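User: Could you check the structure of this?
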Amino acid sequence: MKIEKLASFVADRPVFDAEMLRVGKADPRSVNVQLSRWKKAGKIIQLRRGLYLMNNPYIKLPSGYDLYIAGALHCPSYISLHKALEYHGLIPEGVPVYTCVTTRRPVTLRNPVGEFSYRHLRQGLFWGYEKVDTGAGEFFVATPEKALLDLFYLDGVKIGAAYLEELRLQNLGALDLVRLAAFARRAAGPGLTKAAELLAAYVKARAGEGKYL
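Assistant: Sure, the predicted structure tokens are below.
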């Protein structure tokens, strides 16, 4: 197969699994050799073993393809913690690491696209996320409220005004405090319930000071 044919074949999904190229091949070793050559020539990018990304100029990568990659690298998972806070505009700075949660073992993966960190979250807390279609594929991202609760839960820190100030939260009007409280109750942990109450008080205080933005 020529690289142009592959680019046309995966035009809508620039991330592809090597297994799809081996279907019907008598000798899968020839596919491995071709993949190795394309990788060495910079025509494709290896994301992890068996998973590749078409590189420019053979395909125009759509906006959000990197977030799709975050979901494709380690399933099941969803983007949460600091990366989700950035996605929702709740913190001012960009987050270089793609922070995700998974019910599988924790792992950190690095490739030419970036660093992807997956932290373990027990099955009973694996909810509170939304599906987003990027045009390159779908990914899942925590709601603003769940991203914060995941952060509080996994970091295990004592939540207070000083900690919340360190997060440099902004656009607090985007937080649904009713949903925040409901999510905390669903998580069924006294620590998260208290953390949600403190966050709600912090948001209301900031609103009273005219510091929502």
